[in-house]
Amino acid sequence: MKIKFFIAFLLFAGESNSRNLFAKCASADTTGFTVANLFQSNMVVQQNKPYAIWGKAAPGTKVTVKADWATRQGEAVADSSGVWKTSVKVPKAVPGDFKPHTLVITNGGKTVTLTNILIGEVWLASGQSNMQMALKGDKEKKDSGTENWENEVPKATFPNIRFFYTTLNFGATPYDYVKGKWVVCNPETAGSFSAVAYYFASEIHKNTKLPVGIVLSTIGASTGQAWTSRKVLESDTILYNKYLKSYDESPKSKEVIDGGFSFEKVTRPTLLYNAMIAPVAGLSIKGFIWYQGEFNRNDKNKYTRLLTAMIKGWRKDFGQGDLPFYLVQVPSYWWNNEDPAAFDYAVFREAQSNVRKLKNTEMVVTTDDPDAPRNLHPRRKKPIGLRLARIALNKNYKLANIQYLGPQLNKVKIDGSKVIVSYHSKSLDGGLTTFDKKAPREFFIAGADQVFHPAKAVIEGDKVILTSDKVAVPVAARYAFTNTAITNFQNKAGLPAEPFRTDDWADDGSGEKIKVDYKRLNEEL
User: Fold this and answer.
1) Contact 267, 221 (CB under 8 A)
2) Nearest partner of 348 among 312, 407, 302, judged by Cα
3) Residues 299/262, Cβ–Cβ less than 8 Å
4) Residues 6 or more apart whose Cβ sits within 8 Å of residue 240
């Protein structure tokens, strides 16, 4: 446990300095008229939907918002508390059109002018340290930063990609403001930004020829409940009892909350939601990408319930329907347990996969990362960002030729001493293979004694045939269902197969009995 916190601390310490590039930028004057800090020069506005914008002014006074792309201006009157909010229509973006635009916001004789604005796609990226991990490392420190950053950072000149790095903060109640600065992507700003989000944005931009904006709200060591609203947690008795009740009854809930980091504080329920999600809720966006879970690993299927509720809450807050939500399944990790058969973390990964029962969600698989089992923060972030982008490009940008699925289990059949595993045709993309041309590994089968043994795996078309000399009559199969599984099995698009188990035997000591509803997933496919 101490090792885990120390690693997370080192990562956070490195990230904290990079936040200086994304410090506060106030779009306001000194007379009380303000435009919320989220709206700045250099930003990207979401295409093809009304663009909400808000701020403060003297109660009862009129605010107008004129966009150079719109024929009709937005208008609002500040309410009794001084809050104003309006919107302007935004046209559909044209691929390859990177014309800079201007927004002029006026209140009486006071004006705020925002320039160098692009019309494109805006995504919110959130989670804990693996989403937060910066692209650039330290040349003086071995294996710091992401893989190959020395070559990647100098190439990161993308004037039509923009970043907003939300400043770390905590709140006992929801805030209406957030700090941060919109910046243009270049080697200086990209190096300090989330590697996963950078690769995601660059791949979307490359394939769509549209401007891309990323709003990043992350902090290492954080829990899912920290990013979830009080309203959501209180509305579900199970979630309330699991995540909120003990906190509300503790002295910590009575403390005055400041903005300083502590490992304990980033685990408290609602604090990050209040300060880093609530203030941006309502921003016009395309969807969410999410990489979090390590600090909820003991929650098992409670995490499915928590994240599902969090997603629903965020969607309601943003008020733009069932916005896409794409998550990253946590990579393998040993968690100070040398038992190669341990699978409690695999059960958690399974709980993550169950979130896809919710409409318009999808998941990236990471069990092919060889750096993962001994590294809580694997350096290979480029494949993660690109896999997230593949999902969006296929599902949201209608590029059907871009495969986003690794081999997905269709069904398992027992035939005497053989187990026949078949995969859904839409997930094959040219066929089943292994990246090292060796036999697929990490397959196991078990008999009625519920003892799993490594299986010999042979690819035959869209199927994998499993046998073991130690299992004469198999009754169950598992694939990559251990804490430290590192796989070589994939489709010809280079996407790894998803872990699975056909049993629900609760021999990991958790008492949990959960498994993926593959029938439902296949129906959706």
Assistant:
1) yes
2) 302
3) no
4) 233, 234
Owner of token pair 């295409």: 47
* Range with the poorest average pLDDT among 183-187, 298-302, 314-318, 348-352: 298-302
Measure the CA–CA gap between 41 and 316, rounded to whole angstroms.
28
| Model pLDDT, residue 259 | 83
How far is the C-alpha of 217 from the C-alpha of 226, rounded, in Å? 12
Question: What does the mean pLDDT of the chain come to?
Answer: 92
- pTM, whole model, 2 decimals? 0.93
> pLDDT for 133-164, tens place per residue?
999 999 888 889 999 999 999 999 999 999 99
- SS3 category, 265: helix
Which residues have CB under 8 Å from 192's CB, separation 6+?
18, 19, 21, 22, 134, 135, 136, 165
The CA distances from residue 236 to 293, 299, 348, 490, 511, in Å, are 20, 16, 21, 39, 22
398's tokens: 């209608």
Query: Hey, what are 174's tokens?
Result: 């929801």
Neighbour tally for 437: CB within 10 Å: 7
Whole-angstrom distance, CA of residue 470 vs CA of residue 88 = 68
How far apart CA 287 and CA 396 sit, in angstroms, is 10
Q: Residue 15's pLDDT is what?
A: 43
Distances in whole angstroms, Cα of residue 525 to Cα of each of 72, 342, 356, 429: 42, 31, 12, 14
End-to-end, the C-alpha distance of the chain in Å comes to: 40
